[in-house]
Specification:
Chain lengths: 200, 200
């Protein structure tokens, strides 16, 4: 029962951002680690045939309101960004490269990317923006740029996305706890109970 | 701030059933009443272009699991029924007729219909089944049958459904609290905080 929790997310997913601000402390309460796994949510939408949430009539409007209210409910700073949706491939590739070097730095980078987009409204689809975020964490820009252009790193993002879809991911955040899938930031209370009781 | 809460639901919606078992006690904590409003969810799906949840690849499988887990999490008896989805027009019409006679009886009837379907697996699309449920509550079958065939009652279901869609309903349960919409049984904790704080 001491397997790490898998946290699948896309940097462009607002509910993923909300979960990212709470999942580590939740897991830590039960002495559990979390594996952060950025994926390409567009590929999952293709697998399930689902449209982008915010583009659905009625549901899209509701969701914009629900995300803002959920952020206040969870006490997480949040501001809907000027550009949405956007591509998150540069950030995801950078994450996996960093993760191979230094797990803790990769986690810091992921938080910084999420917050740059969901609090400061920066365009994280642009490589110079991501490099700037990385630079503030002391990450070398040339090494970053070279790494994310390698076939290994490109393939890694694809592999992780495929693995998540194979585990049933159709939206994000998608969180696996001891084989049990939980979808959405609003399932954190169920995850809490699951960890506390060993399943219910 | 003492307006009743509007609870829009379809008897065939599993998350509506879960919410139905908790919403009255939640509202009562804050001295609030709840207006129960059965609607035709199919019409809302048409308005939003959304497919039936359980028919979506990946998401459908997850949802079946999530509903069962959410029922356990909320401590509500639940069993996925043998026939799903099904038509709920007879039950909805019966509800509005009863509501015109006796609010309390209508609420009892609604609970009984939900439980007949979501606990006992009965086919509530069939008029004889609904009449049997009504009979156990002392409701006259002939009066019920005559009432649900009247144009007024048929129109009422349509009107309530249109009103809910006009308020943004795209799925169920859809709960309006002082003009604020909440979708899903999993938003009851947010409703609790909303009622406690007067909005957040």
């Amino acid at each position: 029962m001491s397997e790490p929790i898998s946290f699948y997310f896309d940097f462009s997913s607002p509910y993923s951002y909300l979960a990212s601000e709470r999942i580590d402390e939740l897991a830590a309460k039960y002495g559990r680690k979390v594996k952060w796994r950025p994926v390409m949510l567009g590929a999952a939408f293709k697998a399930s045939g689902l449209p982008l949430l915010l583009s659905v009539p009625l549901k899209g409007e509701y969701s914009k309101r629900d995300i803002e209210r959920s952020a206040r409910f969870m006490d997480v700073p949040y501001k809907f960004p000027p550009k949405f949706p956007l591509a998150t491939l540069v950030a995801a590739r950078g994450y996996y490269w960093l993760h191979g070097q230094d797990c803790g730095k990769a986690r810091e980078f992921a938080h910084a990317v999420f917050r740059a987009y969901w609090v400061d409204g920066r365009d994280i689809s642009e490589a110079p923006v991501v490099l700037d975020i990385a630079a503030k964490l002391g990450i070398d820009g040339d090494a970053f740029t070279a790494a994310i252009a390698t076939p290994e790193i490109k393939e890694r993002v694809k592999q992780e996305t495929d693995a998540a879809i194979a585990k049933g991911m159709f939206g994000a955040p998608y969180i696996m706890v001891d084989g049990e899938p939980f979808w959405g930031a609003d399932r954190l209370p169920q995850i809490d109970k699951w960890l506390a009781t060993g399943g219910f």
